[in-house]
Amino acid sequence: MSSLPLPATRARPSLFGLSRPKLRRALEEAGVAPYRADQIFSWVYRKHRRAAAEMTNLPTSLRDRLAEVCDLSLPRVAQALGTADGQTHKFVLELEDGALVECVSMRTERRLTLCLSSQVGCALKCAFCATGKMGLKRNLAAHEIVAQVLRMGDFHAWRDTRFNLVLMGMGEPLANYEPTLEAIRILHDEAGLALSARRVTVSTSGVVTGIRRLAEEGLPLGLAVSLHATTDALRDRLVPLNQRWPLGELLPAARDYGRRTGRRVTLEYTLMAGVNDGREDARRLAGIARGLPSKINLIPYNPVPGLEFERPTRQAVETFAGWLYPEAPAVMVRNTLGGEIWAACGQLGGLS
């Protein structure tokens, strides 16, 4: 599918967009032994050092020259907002061209989850989403996706060695496929963060070709499908991408992905009062879930100024979940995290 290009090619590549094989080649071209790439990866991703001068097992000559091979700078944190309980933080990063992108860290009793963006804005224009109102400004490069993890990890002082990543921030990851997968592979590298693929979830509004391509990658990544409606008529209105890939194409692709990877697909369903929270909606959603290896995430709508939708009452959410429980494989009602700082699902982009 069409999308805007990546930022202009840089004179020096960012270190954070280089896989180890690419870093080896860059070092070799500069006359440096390629095994130094393993040491650099360890310093950057395991020891969390951000300056070549701190990489003490590298020769002084390489420390002095490393900035000529690759750029070690990270985007500036233009703004960091935290909730009153200190459990959720939103970060606004200023990229090299001045573009702003938002990412979010969410801490619960069980885990830290980092929510990443894949684009500046979004082209899909989902009717209930703040990011969709921005339109698409550009794709993110791999180093700009990796940088979000490093900035948030540095903020939290890397206290959490086992954390989850969800590509559920600004943009459609599967519309920026190659940089997104390159970033995941860099973060997955055993010499670096060694992040398990099972701790990474890619969210999509329904890019069927991307889902099928992702199934061929050999990585058991989690897949979340932003479903939000159980009929094509309603989904055409809420998620306009459905007009290109309707449910009759999306659901078989999701089913095949689950079977191919051995992972249950998460069906994301944002509940909007009087729109998609009726008894028949629940019946159809349960039927869809039973036809897949799946689980359902119910998300009470997070209000966005200027949009027509309303959040259902707590009782309405509980009633809808109750209709699902006897019929669907697994159901979870997602707690709203970060609503007070416009960091909740569907709210990113207000500061960009």
Q: Keywords, please?
A:
352 residues, TIM Barrel, 2 domains, 32% helix, alpha/beta
Class based on secondary structure composition and strand pairing: alpha/beta
Q: Total strand count, please?
A: 12
Q: Give the rounded overall mean pLDDT.
A: 93
Outline? elongated
Rg measurement, Å: 21 Å
Reading off the top of the CATH hierarchy, the class of the largest domain is best stated as Alpha Beta
Textual characterization of the structure:
The protein is an alpha/beta fold and 352 residues long. It folds into two domains: 55 residues, Orthogonal Bundle (DNA polymerase, domain 1), CATH 1.10.150.530; 266 residues, TIM Barrel (Alpha-Beta Barrel). Helix content is 32%, strand content 18%. The chain contains eleven helices and twelve strands. The protein has a ten-stranded mixed beta sheet with strand order 1-2-3-4-7-8-9-10-11-12. Strands 5-6 form a two-stranded antiparallel sheet. A hairpin with a 5-residue loop joins strand 2 and strand 3. Helix 1 crosses helix 2, helix 7 packs parallel to helix 9 and helix 10 packs across helix 11.
